[in-house]
Amino acid sequence: MKKIFLYLVVFFSFLLLSYKAFFYFDHESEQKELVQNEAITRLSIAETNKLREGDIILRRGFGFFSDYISTTLNKGIVDVTHAGIIVRRDNMWCVIHSLSSDVSEIDGLQIQPLTDFLYYSAPGKIIVTRAKNSDAAFGKKVAAFAQTYLAKQIPFDHKGVIDDDSKLFCTELIWKILEKDLNYYPNLPKGHDAREKFFYSMEPMYNTAYYDIVINQYEGFRK
Q: What domains sit in the chain, N to C, each tagged with a CATH number?
């Protein structure tokens, strides 16, 4: 019995070390790519001038983990890996988004200046969307809800439990605001399996059935 217990301890210790090692090397890979792309502008002035509060910004990140997400959660030419909500704070553009403590000093909802958010985006890999046929007033409501959840310090949803609003991953935050808080998309999938398939994918975030495309940096991707 003691041997079995010892084997289990060794096994789970190995899994934990492997998990930590993966994110260590992922971070090292990300830092190398960040330096290589540091001088490249992510959004032009003309693109920035198109932004409104409540817009959804999608980016393609760096590192091994982003490589995995880019192909797993997308199909076709678009390979975005992360999403946030654009807000105005202290007269500057910022992004409210949710990140895991595996890749961030803060676990869950956080706010960054837009320039910092863009720093972690691969050049030419940004899409900005807006709730379909919505106006500026609606966008301000989206931004206000994002600010509310930020103030509550909602943690990151590491397990990806759909419809448990106590923890939220990046796109889960957006759909919660649009579907539940603002009732803007009342006809999203209802069954658990269908909702998981829908919410775990990045594709609905740039699907023109739900969003207008404000900025599209992907050549070959048609609105």
A: 36-216 (3.90.1720.10)
